[in-house]
Write a structure and sequence with these properties.
The complex is a heterodimer of chains A (204) and B (109).
Chain A lengths: L1 H21 L3 H21 L3 H26 L12 H24 L1 H5 L20 H9 L3 H22 L7 H13 L13
Chain B lengths: L4 H21 L3 H25 L7 H36 L13
Helix pairs in contact in B: 1-2, 2-3
């Protein structure tokens, strides 16, 4: 049953990812990306990672997709603006390149003795020793994250801080460098009457 | 029905290669960023699959949880990458009125 669910979710994820990279309209890509993230989340559930399945839905299908759709809405691209000039030969070259990469990686997987000797993914987990039966559950994952792996965790928080500062700095409009802002300002100056002079009390 | 490690890894590899195809064949920055998310997710699936496959032979719960800790960190990096990437896209769009990577070819402008 677990294997069946994993296969179905994997096939749907593969089809959805193919649709994501081929649609002309980025909004359709974003919608199918949500489907893809949901399927990956189901795969995580089957593979005994319930906490990550929920986080996958919250962070990817929730936060990151909202970010993408918000930017799409903000840009509001017309069909002319989102037109791409990708030649047929370049598409074929990209296809050949990615297929070649797949063949290379699949060959490496097929040749690996570690992979060949690994247990089945639906094999039962030994209970009673070293707490393996509860590995991946939220409590155990938190213990790992805050004891053994606390240093990378703290570095990650620093990385996110840098990302926040960077995002704010990049999106801040800086006066004359933005043509749109300048155009809008010029248009306003043409149409609006000059503001009356305001004399504040106590000011000479 | 049995689920073997190699089959699951082939699936993750296929999704990764679809992401590579997207990055190579598209010119819209938004779709490029989505393809990057596809690739990051494929790697996440591969990590979780490997962690599950070697779970019965792990020496302790901390060892068994290491792949999932990796995935948590990849998630955080992906969120940071999406935020910075989309804000760069907004800044570029404001300046040049385009989201086509072929038209953004100046380092200084």
């Amino acid at each position: 049953m677990d294997a069946f669910v994993f296969y179905i979710a994997g096939v749907v994820a593969l089809i959805a990812s193919g649709i994501v990279v081929t649609r002309k309209n980025p909004v359709y890509s974003a919608i199918f990306l949500v489907l893809f993230f949901t399927m990956v989340s189901i795969q995580f559930l089957v593979l005994r990672a319930p906490f990550l399945a929920v986080i996958q839905l919250l962070v990817y299908a929730g936060a990151i997709m909202v970010l993408f759709l918000f930017v799409l809405m903000l840009l509001n691209l017309t069909p002319e603006e989102r037109r791409e000039q990708v030649s047929r030969s370049r598409k074929i070259a990209a296809l050949l390149g990615s297929v070649a990469l797949f063949v290379l990686l699949a060959g490496a997987i097929a040749k690996s003795p570690t992979v060949r000797e690994a247990a089945s993914l639906t094999a039962p987990v030994p209970t009673g020793e070293a707490g393996l039966a509860v590995a991946g559950e939220t409590r155990e994952l938190a213990v790992s994250l805050f004891t053994v792996h606390v240093l990378p965790f703290e570095f990650t928080s620093f990385l996110i801080l840098i990302a926040i500062v960077g995002a704010i700095y990049l999106t801040k409009s800086r006066g004359s460098t933005t043509t749109a802002r300048r155009d809008r300002g010029a248009a306003q100056a043409d149409t609006l009457p000059s503001p009356p002079e305001v004399v504040l009390e106590g000011e000479k | 029905m049995e689920l073997h490690l190699d089959t699951a890894l082939y699936m993750a590899t296929a999704i990764f290669c679809v992401g590579v195809y997207g990055v190579l064949s598209r010119q819209n920055i938004i779709v490029l960023l989505m393809s990057l998310e596809l690739m990051l997710n494929a790697v996440n699936v591969a990590l979780i699959v490997l962690g599950r496959a070697f779970l019965p032979t792990a020496s302790s719960a901390a060892v068994a949880n290491t792949p999932q800790v990796f995935v948590v960190i990849v998630l955080a990096v992906a969120a940071a990458e999406a935020a910075v990437g989309l804000s760069i896209l907004l800044a570029v769009y404001r300046r040049w009125r385009t989201t086509n990577v072929a038209e953004i070819n100046l380092l200084k402008g």
